[in-house]
Amino acid sequence: EVQLVESGGGLVQAGGSLRLSCAASGFTFDDYAIAWFRQAPGEEREGVSCISSSDGSTYYANSVKGRFTISSDNTKSTVYLQMNSLKPEDTAVYYCAADPWSPCSGAYYNAVEYDYWGQGTQVTVSK
């Protein structure tokens, strides 16, 4: 059974940092695309970043480029999202998602591309 488990969320002041983790199990990790999405109350789910496990290629939303960094540790089957210079508008539930059949592409932000989702972790950035 495929499972994705996020951790690392919390409350932080604006300008602070958090590192989210997405631990994957139940599938061969090396050939997957893993993405981070976020959803704020009353908003649509937004694609934040994506990493291809095979070659490490990455994509970022313009809203987080230069502040967030996605990385993976294939030995631990874990993907990380390092979030720096956090802003109140980054407040949301953050989800990781997996596409077992394709690397990341320009359509990484499209939620229908992903077959497996974690339960989400809350990130709250105070002013």
Describe the protein.
By secondary structure, this protein is mostly beta strands. The chain is about 0% helix and about 50% strand. The strands form two sheets. Strands 2, 4, 5, 6, 9, 10 and 11 form a seven-stranded mixed sheet that branches. It has a four-stranded antiparallel sheet with strand order 1-3-8-7, with no helix packed on it. The radius of gyration is 13 Å and the shape is globular. The chain starts with a strand and ends with a strand.
Q: What is the alpha-carbon Rg in Å?
A: 13 Å
Write the H/E string, N to C.
EEEEEEEEEEE
**Apparent shape:** globular
Strand content: over 45%
Class per helix and strand makeup: mainly beta
Mean pLDDT: 94
Task: Report the total helices.
Answer: 0
* Spatial separation of the terminal alpha carbons: 40 Å
Helical content class: under 10%
How many β-strands, per DSSP?
Answer: 11
Low-pLDDT sequence parts: none
* Main pleated sheet: 7 strands, mixed
